[in-house]
């Protein structure tokens, strides 16, 4: 069977470009690290390839499996994206070097940017000093002002789409997948619905036709929200919440002019925002002489390439139909609530004697032993259990016993049901969601690298952190109401059992790296306790198992990535 991607060493344009390796794959395309052979320089090549509708033959030609009309529309959108970027000539905007058609699909060639996104920087360092954040925002604002003079709106400005080049600490604006170009009468030149990024998109972007007329103010809102993220370390509230409740208080050490600029930029009413990027820049009152140059750290593993589609979900269901705005919001919220869990080595299971995880040892069951050393790579895990609202958005129905509040975890789902849900969700998002392995689940429940050695996920007081038989009232409860654990994960103990990917089987005492459980079995692992059982089953190390087709009101799940 032919590979989905081009193989290493494959050439394009008669040997002008040679593929080195795959860098990333999203819903609409595959991004490769490549070499421009004669110039001997690294480049990035993006190939249009809708993985759920396309395939590749043994000669590397791409063909459509189904939904030909839909694929054709997105193919033209991909080409338009490349053309819009190629028309720009600004140091703060990623450069497109070439566009061509080959293998019955489109490609465009970009400069290769070594560095990391502002999102990664903030996740690694926390909130940035004011002058460092302003330096980045000033450069991005200048790039956006350049775009606006060409009647182009980016419409997806956020930290994930701003690369910081390692060589000179220069922020580069990337990913024009939802951008719009307007004519001389300020009317959009395409009617493709814009995407929405929770926390960064203004309210008009959620509405059909809301950005059909040119105005810089949608990008100004997003840049204000980006500055909020850089200065607080927190994702801004959704636009509707800002409209209803305003922004949460900004840290006291931020200057008043900057606070005022952020509040103005994120106004609900379009006309109350600054008219242009230059006006917004002026409100910040940036003193160039005090700007701090803070080069990003060298890290050979921290190389990001521009751009990859992973942050822009395709938002189409398995039938190729576009999701409604309300469905998009649910899925976007689900994506934004994935929490990064840094890998490390830990001891999994219960100790045999007191003195090591002794809080667990007294109550340990035999299948929780022997305690053994496990090393895990980094991964992401859902902040919350999958809710009834999320299940219904993806599956079109709600199997739960306890209906009435769609923020409650979905239950009455089997392991097999979860696999169907995940497959459909991956079609909608272009991502690779899955169930966590048992080792990932336990490591995250312990609090990962921030673990404080609690008995339950988030503390030793069961009533503070879990819904269980002693306080649930014989029902599930909305996710996120109890105290989270050290990683900010809710309901890892209690509410519903959570399916894991692994077959159930006895532990081994051997040292393991990224274990995935037994190779076969008759039952799958479930972890975390639930609303119906007593506290001993809510312990971090407690293990349960059920057959693949078993569904009941105590069984739910959370997602890994």
Which strand order does the major sheet show?
1-2-3-4-8-7
Return residue spans where pLDDT drops below 50 for at least 5 consecutive residues: 289-312, 353-361
Biggest pleated sheet: 6 strands, antiparallel
Strand content: 15-25%
Give the CATH architecture of the largest domain. Alpha-Beta Complex
- The beta-strand count equals 22
As a whole number of angstroms, the C-alpha radius of gyration is: 25 Å
Helix count from the secondary structure assignment: 13
N- to C-terminal separation?
A: 26 Å
Q: Provide the CATH topology of the largest domain.
A: paralog of FGE (formylglycine-generating enzyme)
Q: Which SSEs are present, and which pair or pack?
A:
Layout: E1 11-12, E2 17-25, E3 29-36, E4 41-48, E5 54-56, E6 62-64, H1 68-86, E7 96-102, E8 105-111, E9 115-117, H2 118-125, H3 130-149, E10 152-153, E11 162-165, E12 171-173, E13 180-181, H4 217-232, H5 239-245, H6 256-265, H7 277-284, H8 325-336, E14 338-341, E15 345-348, H9 358-361, E16 372-375, E17 379-382, H10 388-395, H11 415-429, H12 438-446, H13 462-465, E18 497-503, E19 512-513, E20 524-527, E21 543-546, E22 555-556
Parallel strand pairs: 16-19, 18-22
Antiparallel strand pairs: 1-2, 2-3, 3-4, 4-8, 5-6, 7-8, 9-11, 10-13, 11-12, 14-17, 15-16, 18-20, 20-21
């Amino acid at each position: 069977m032919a590979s989905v991607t081009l193989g290493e060493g494959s050439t394009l344009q008669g040997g002008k470009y040679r593929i080195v390796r795959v860098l990333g794959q999203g819903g609409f395309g595959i991004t490769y690290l490549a070499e421009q052979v004669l110039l001997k320089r690294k480049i990035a090549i993006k190939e249009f390839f809708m993985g759920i509708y396309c395939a590749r033959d043994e000669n590397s030609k791409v063909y459509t499996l189904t939904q030909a009309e839909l694929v054709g529309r997105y193919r033209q959108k991909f080409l338009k994206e490349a053309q819009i970027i190629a028309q720009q000539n600004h140091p703060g905007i990623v450069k497109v070097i070439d566009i061509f058609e080959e293998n019955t699909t489109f490609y465009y060639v970009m400069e290769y940017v070594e560095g990391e996104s502002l999102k990664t920087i903030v996740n690694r360092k926390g909130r940035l000093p004011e002058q460092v954040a302003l330096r980045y925002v000033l450069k991005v604002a200048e790039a956006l002002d350049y775009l606006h003079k060409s009647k182009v709106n980016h419409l997806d400005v956020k930290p994930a789409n701003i690369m910081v080049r390692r060589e000179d600490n220069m922020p580069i604006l990337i990913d024009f997948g939802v951008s719009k170009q307007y004519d001389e009468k300020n009317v959009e030149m395409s009617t493709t619905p814009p995407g929405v990024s929770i926390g960064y998109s203004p309210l008009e972007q959620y509405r059909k036709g809301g950005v059909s007329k040119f105005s810089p103010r949608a990008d100004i809102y997003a840049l204000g929200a980006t500055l909020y993220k850089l200065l607080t370390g927190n994702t801004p509230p959704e636009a509707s919440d800002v409209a209803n409740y305003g922004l949460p208080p900004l840290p006291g050490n931020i200057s008043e002019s900057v606070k005022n600029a952020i509040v103005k930029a994120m106004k609900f009413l379009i006309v109350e925002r600054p008219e242009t990027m230059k006006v917004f820049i002026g409100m910040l009152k940036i003193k160039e002489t005090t700007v701090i140059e803070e080069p990003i750290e060298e890290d050979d593993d921290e190389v990001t390439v521009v751009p990859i589609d992973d942050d822009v979900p395709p938002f189409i269901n398995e039938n190729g139909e576009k999701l409604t705005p309300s469905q998009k919001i649910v899925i976007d919220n689900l994506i934004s609530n994935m929490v990064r869990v840094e890998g490390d080595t830990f001891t999994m299971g219960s100790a045999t004697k007191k003195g090591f995880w002794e809080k667990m040892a007294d109550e340990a069951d035999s299948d929780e032993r022997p305690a053994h050393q496990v090393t895990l790579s980094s991964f992401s895990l859902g902040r919350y259990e999958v809710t009834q609202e999320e299940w219904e958005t993806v599956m079109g129905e709600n199997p739960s016993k306890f209906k009435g509040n769609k923020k409650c975890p979905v239950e009455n789902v089997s392991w097999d049901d979860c696999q169907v849900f995940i497959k459909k969700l991956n079609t909608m998002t272009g991502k690779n969601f899955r169930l966590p392995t048992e080792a990932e689940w336990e490591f995250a429940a312990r609090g990962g690298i921030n673990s404080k050695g609690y008995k339950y996920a988030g503390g030793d007081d069961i009533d503070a952190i879990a819904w269980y038989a002693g306080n649930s009232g014989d029902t599930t409860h909305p996710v996120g109401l109890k105290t989270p654990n050290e990683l900010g994960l809710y309901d890892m103990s209690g509410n519903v059992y959570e399916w894991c990917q692994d077959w159930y089987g006895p532990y081994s005492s051997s040292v393991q790296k990224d274990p995935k459980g037994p190779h076969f079995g008759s039952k799958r692992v479930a972890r975390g306790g639930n609303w119906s059982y007593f506290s001993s089953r809510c312990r971090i190390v407690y293990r349960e198992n059920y057959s693949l087709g078993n569904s009941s009101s105590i069984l739910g799940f959370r997602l890994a990535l």
